[in-house]
From TrEMBL, chain A:
The lineage of its organism: Bacteria, Pseudomonadati, Pseudomonadota, Gammaproteobacteria, Oceanospirillales. GO terms for cellular component: plasma membrane. Residues 58-273, 358-551 form the ABC transmembrane type-1 domain. Keywords: Cell membrane, Membrane, Transmembrane, Transmembrane helix, Transport. It is a multi-pass membrane protein. PROSITE patterns: ABC_TM1. The chain crosses the membrane at residues 12-36, 66-88, 109-129, 149-172, 207-230, 250-276, 297-326, 362-380, 401-421, 427-448, 477-504, 537-556. It comes from the Bacteria. The keyword Transferase does not apply. Its main location: membrane. GO terms for biological process: transmembrane transport. This is ABC transporter permease. It is found in: Cell membrane.
Automatic annotation (TrEMBL), chain B:
Signal peptide: none annotated. It comes from Marinomonas ushuaiensis DSM 15871. GO terms for molecular function: ATP binding; ATP hydrolysis activity. It holds the Pfam family ABC_tran. This is ABC transporter ATPase. InterPro entries: AAA+_ATPase, ABC_SmlMolc_Importer, ABC_transporter-like_ATP-bd, ABC_transporter-like_CS, P-loop_NTPase.
């Protein structure tokens, strides 16, 4: 891109990236100390904090948040490492790898709803064992999903996070020369799990530290998953805060803001503790690594992780498979494993609603993702030019860490603060505001997906094109962008699926006036009309999968189709 | 005629080439040989106007007494051929060739030019093939013809034969020399292979590390 004034563009984009977050944080911090001009409060006070700490609900919520927010990532990490150690570079594992991408693409609310259908007392798991094994001819009086300990929430978190960590690890394996390490250790007679434990995992962990931190921060603050499958009364802290923020009694906002500030401090403390625990653990296991034993009793830990990991994957697919079954079911009485009669009526009845939800969802997702793609190209081009000027291959650019800010900060921490700004700008409730908030979350993923391929592009192609006939802007598109098509399509699919999954940004910016498949599915998940919820969750899951699939097949066939069309029109 | 006068190249800490001067007549190829890292490619970048910021070059370059070194790269009408053929992988051979023809050429002339080019290449049947379907030698020839179709005023060759099979090199060299003679423009070849220089049947300058 023949851009000029790249420094100004860099500064402008950096401001656009950080400003909303800063304003959002201020909009949360000030009310936490009772300062909130819109409600006529101009006096600083610690009353909100005293109120929070006086609430019994706060402590039980915090406990649940810590259990699920630490337990989920810890178990996900264990299962992902086990699966990787077990299957890496084995032929059958390739098939499992290809299975990961649909799970990654599907919004977590859809998976949570599928899990609800699978695990609830009247769910599919109980059905297939009833009545022949359990003797139940009506749903048992158990509490399985939304259990008070948050176990089902932890399970849902694992289903979402384990594939993500596995995906990140697979990408990181190349940079630690895993194959050579494995061969060297196997030649020394080390068993597979032991060599992973002693040699590969210690090398792998530092590379995937940031993705793990993102997963931990997400688990501690997730709202939509916890609303669907998490415990209620008490719920996790993020959900409790969400309820306080939405309370008709506006003075609850002060307490909610203080709680949100506390939650952000909690994240920092948990991440700090996580890092200290990792250091202590690796210091503790250091001497064990060089004790020369080729096999160890702790290998069982990884072996067990494989079993649990596979069971988890199986559950994820069963949960997804239940979505279409429920949306097509007419009569499905309790112990039956499948509906006794099928029908399109559910979908037909819901069609007007589904069309409205779908068009909102797609409009928001397409706009946000297209803007994010354009912005990412701008940002990467300025980064490339500054790299070319300084002649350094690995120069750290402001974008490289700024981009993580929206992903690492909890949505509950600053979105309500940002909402105040939207009200001032008179943008609250508009579809533009929703797109803008989605952009904050879509942009980082698009940027990070595009970064590697864009910076690796051989600029000589573009230079040669401009030497042959000098039209820099045109050639930027028909040569460089055209050659980067596969990466652009993948980045688009990534951003698209992120946008589809957004719950809080849609609700807060749209003030409930513009529903999407995600907000409506979550709102109705608890209502019990499984047939309708199933249809919504199904569509919600379907679009990202279709877009990812198209992103795989279109770029590779594009040129063939283009030439075929050209030949057709020339002859015709 | 391409003339270079008093070309001196230095990096931050040392002088690489000192006071190099030469003339190249139309249709002739001058070969420059020397060990790698000496700054041969930087001479080409100086002539094409894309010298990296970390190097400083002084000296003058003229094309038929018209100063080159003061012009920006896009105004120089330079053709450059590198180790990689850099055929655009998402365009067919005929599209790659058409890409180079200036936009003001009429449609009939374009068609004529392309037919000639494909005939010279002996690839009339491969007009719609993709670059990756061609052999390395074929790609090198297409790249040369593509460069010449843009009607450059002078041609720079940066080791264009080094990635080719030894068996192919002779053919491609002969093809390149014949095309340069026909286009009747000055060409500068940079190489570390003395066979390349010999095959170009022109003068050869050897440069050593500057003292």
């Amino acid at each position: 891109m023949p851009l000029k004034h790249t420094q100004w563009i860099t500064a402008l984009i950096a401001v656009l990236l950080t400003l909303p977050v800063i304003i959002g944080l201020i909009g949360t911090l000030l009310p936490a100390f009772q300062f909130f001009p819109p409600l006529g409060e101009y006096q600083f006070s610690t009353a909100p904090w005293r109120n929070v700490f006086a609430q019994g609900e706060f402590y039980s919520s915090l406990k649940l948040t810590l259990i699920t927010g630490i337990g989920g990532p810890l178990l996900s990490l264990w299962l992902a490492l086990s699966l990787l150690a077990w299957g890496y570079e084995r032929p059958f594992f390739r098939k499992i790898e290809t299975l990961l991408s649909p799970i990654l693409a599907v919004p977590h609310a859809a998976i949570a709803i599928g899990l609800l259908f699978l695990l609830s007392p009247s769910g599919w798991l109980v059905r297939i064992f009833s009545p022949w094994l359990t003797g139940f001819d009506r749903p048992p009086n158990w509490i399985t999903v939304q259990d008070p300990f948050g176990l089902s929430l932890i399970f849902a978190l694992i289903i979402k996070e384990m594939p993500y960590l596995l995906f990140v690890m697979l990408a990181a394996m190349k940079s630690i020369k895993a194959r050579e390490n494995i061969q060297a250790c196997q030649a020394l007679g080390y068993s597979r799990f032991t060599l992973w434990r002693k040699v590969l995992i210690p090398q792998l962990y530092p590379i995937i530290r940031l993705p793990i931190f993102i997963v931990v921060a997400f688990s501690l603050t997730v709202v939509d998953l916890a609303l669907v499958i998490g415990p209620n009364t008490p719920s996790t802290l993020a959900v409790t805060l969400y309820r306080w923020f939405n309370d008709p009694d506006l003075s609850m906002r002060f307490m909610a803001s203080a709680g949100a500030t506390f939650l952000m401090v909690t994240i920092v403390l948990v991440l700090g503790g996580w890092e200290i625990a990792h250091r202590a653990f690796s210091a503790f296991t250091r001497c064990e690594r060089s004790d020369g034993k080729r096999k160890g009793i702790t290998d069982i830990l990884l072996g067990a992780g494989v079993v649990f990991g596979l069971v988890t994957l199986l559950n994820a697919f069963a949960a997804l498979a239940l979505l279409p079954i429920w949306s097509l079911a007419k009569r499905w009485r309790f112990p039956d494993a499948l509906p006794s009669t099928w029908t399109w009526d559910n979908i037909e009845r819901a069609t007007p609603l589904l069309i409205e939800l779908t068009s909102n969802t797609l409009l928001i997702a397409f706009s946000a993702t297209l803007i994010a793609c354009a912005a990412s190209l701008f940002m990467l081009e300025t980064k490339r030019q500054s790299m070319a000027k300084s002649n350094k291959a690995s120069q750290q650019h402001a974008f490289d860490w700024l981009i993580y800010v929206p992903i690492l900060l909890p949505q509950i921490g600053f979105l309500f603060g940002l909402h105040v700004l939207l009200i001032y700008l008179n943008l609250n409730g508009s579809i533009c505001a929703i797109i803008a908030l989605h952009l904050m979350y879509v942009l980082p993923y698009v940027y990070l997906t595009l970064k590697g391929p864009y910076l690796a592009y051989n600029e000589n192609y573009l230079l040669q094109a401009n030497r042959l006939n000098n039209r820099p802007w045109r050639h930027y598109f028909i040569i460089k962008i055209a050659m980067l098509k596969p990466a652009l399509f993948t980045a688009f699919a990534m951003g698209f699926s992120v946008s589809i999954a957004q719950y809080l940004p849609t609700l807060i910016a749209g003030e409930g006036r513009h529903s999407t498949l995600t907000t409506e599915a979550i709102a109705q998940a608890a209502s019990g009309d499984r047939k309708q919820v199933g249809s919504m969750a199904l569509l919600q899951a379907l679009f990202p999968v279709i877009v990812f699939w198209l992103a795989q097949i279109i770029p590779t066939r594009w040129t063939k189709w283009r030439l075929a069309m050209k030949n057709f029109f020339q002859k015709g | 005629m391409l003339s270079v006068k008093g070309f001196t190249l230095s990096s931050t800490d040392k002088t690489l080439i000192r006071d190099l001067s030469f003339d190249i007549a139309d249709g002739q190829v001058l070969s420059i040989m020397g060990p790698s890292g000496i700054g041969k490619s930087s001479l080409l970048h100086f002539l094409s106007g894309t010298l990296s910021h970390s190097l400083t070059a002084t000296g003058e370059a003229f094309l038929n007494d018209d100063a080159l070194h003061t012009k920006p790269t896009e105004a120089r009408k330079v053709g450059l051929l590198q180790q990689m053929p850099l055929l655009f992988p998402h365009m067919s051979i005929i599209e790659n060739l058409l890409f180079a023809i200036p936009a003001d050429v009429t449609k009939e002339t374009r068609r004529e030019l392309i037919r000639n080019a494909l005939e010279k290449l002996g690839m009339s049947d491969k007009a719609n093939a993709m670059p990756k379907e061609l052999s390395g030698g074929q790609q090198a020839r297409v790249a040369l013809l593509r460069t010449l179709l843009a009607k450059p005023d002078y041609l720079l060759l940066d080791e264009p034969f080094s990635k080719l099979d030894p068996a192919l090199r002779r053919d491609v060299r002969a093809f390149v020399l014949a095309e340069i003679r026909q286009a009747n423009i000055p060409a500068l070849l940079v190489t570390h292979d003395s066979e390349d220089a010999k095959a170009m049947a022109g003068k050869c300058l050897e440069i050593d590390a500057a003292k």
